[in-house]
């Protein structure tokens, strides 16, 4: 069986940057998982003594705190600074952009529409930058817009890992009903490239392996896209989850990986597939 990697996969700029920042600050901790990849977080813990705190109230004064790639709510960041903590900001610049846009457009009197998952840490951070919290709304479906008390002026941004065609549907619905719609394309280019590459590979593969965290939005999207053209597509976090039955009578195995998946995990998966296929 032949194994082929997608032409674009794995670590994006923001994740690479965050890992490098974390490695430069040994004996610190991150507030929330730095990235959505448990194996990489464990590597940082074992090799660099970088801990993890999940609950904000557990952060002590005068600590060195690394801010996760997805960012954190504005009020929490402000509070950490008041506690005299040393703040190491590893927020992805592509996430900082919608934060700044939401803050600016909210200040200028626009209603804010954010296309994304309301429970995702990135979106929790982005919405917090609206100066008027009761005038910022998170939607996943254009149908939700009809129930919102939006002003005539609306600014719209997207979660960085969403599909452009889905974002366009929300934008189209807003344009039909509002006099002024300011559209900011905040979807990450790396997301486009990885998704397109996975789609192209899935069209010719008869089994697809997508590697990444089970809670990673962009990885789950890669898996969904792969399934459209290759029904035998599987999402795994590492090589231990591989099943030999997946590769029986298969000719081409395609491999893609989420933006938080380090290359060493990808190589471990390839080695395991070569042994069992």
UniProtKB/TrEMBL annotation:
EC number, as in UniProt: 1.17.7.4
Binding annotation for (2E)-4-hydroxy-3-methylbut-2-enyl diphosphate: 36, 70, 120, 160, 216-218, 260
UniProt pathway: Isoprenoid biosynthesis; isopentenyl diphosphate biosynthesis via DXP pathway; isopentenyl diphosphate from 1-deoxy-D-xylulose 5-phosphate: step 6/6; Isoprenoid biosynthesis; dimethylallyl diphosphate biosynthesis; dimethylallyl diphosphate from (2E)-4-hydroxy-3-methylbutenyl diphosphate: step 1/1
UniProt: isopentenyl diphosphate binding residues: 36, 70, 120, 216-218, 260
Residue numbers binding dimethylallyl diphosphate: 36, 70, 120, 216-218, 260
Catalytically driven reaction(s): dimethylallyl diphosphate + 2 oxidized [2Fe-2S]-[ferredoxin] + H2O = (2E)-4-hydroxy-3-methylbut-2-enyl diphosphate + 2 reduced [2Fe-2S]-[ferredoxin] + 2 H(+); isopentenyl diphosphate + 2 oxidized [2Fe-2S]-[ferredoxin] + H2O = (2E)-4-hydroxy-3-methylbut-2-enyl diphosphate + 2 reduced [2Fe-2S]-[ferredoxin] + 2 H(+)
Keyword line: 4Fe-4S, Iron, Iron-sulfur, Isoprene biosynthesis, Metal-binding, Oxidoreductase
Pfam families in the record: LYTB
Protein name: 4-hydroxy-3-methylbut-2-enyl diphosphate reductase
Originating species: uncultured Sulfurovum sp
């Amino acid at each position: 069986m032949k194994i082929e990697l997608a032409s674009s996969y794995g670590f994006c700029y923001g994740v690479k940057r965050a890992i490098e920042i974390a490695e430069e600050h040994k004996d610190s901790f991150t507030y929330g998982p730095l990235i959505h990849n448990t194996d990489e977080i464990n590597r940082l813990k074992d090799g660099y003594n970088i801990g993890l705190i999940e609950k904000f109230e557990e952060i002590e004064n005068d600590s060195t705190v690394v801010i996760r790639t997805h960012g954190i709510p504005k009020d929490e960041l402000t509070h950490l600074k008041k506690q005299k903590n040393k703040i190491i900001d590893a927020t992805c610049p592509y996430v900082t952009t919608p934060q700044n846009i939401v803050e600016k457009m909210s200040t200028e009197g626009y209603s804010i529409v954010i296309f994304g998952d309301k429970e995702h840490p990135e979106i929790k951070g982005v919405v917090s930058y609206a100066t008027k919290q009761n005038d910022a709304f998170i939607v996943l479906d254009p149908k939700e817009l009809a129930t919102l008390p939006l002003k005539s002026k609306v600014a719209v941004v997207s979660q960085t890992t969403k599909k452009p065609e889905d974002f366009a549907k929300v934008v189209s619905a807003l344009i039909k009903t509002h006099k002024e719609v300011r559209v900011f394309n905040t979807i990450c280019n790396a997301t486009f490239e990885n998704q397109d590459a996975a789609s192209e590979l899935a069209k010719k593969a008869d089994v697809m392996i997508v590697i990444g965290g089970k809670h990673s939005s962009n990885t789950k999207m890669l898996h969904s896209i792969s399934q459209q053209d290759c029904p035998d597509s599987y999402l795994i976090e590492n090589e231990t989850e591989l099943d030999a039955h997946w590769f029986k009578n298969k000719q081409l195995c395609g491999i893609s990986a989420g933006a938080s998946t380090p290359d060493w995990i990808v190589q471990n998966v390839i080695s395991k597939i070569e042994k069992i296929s």
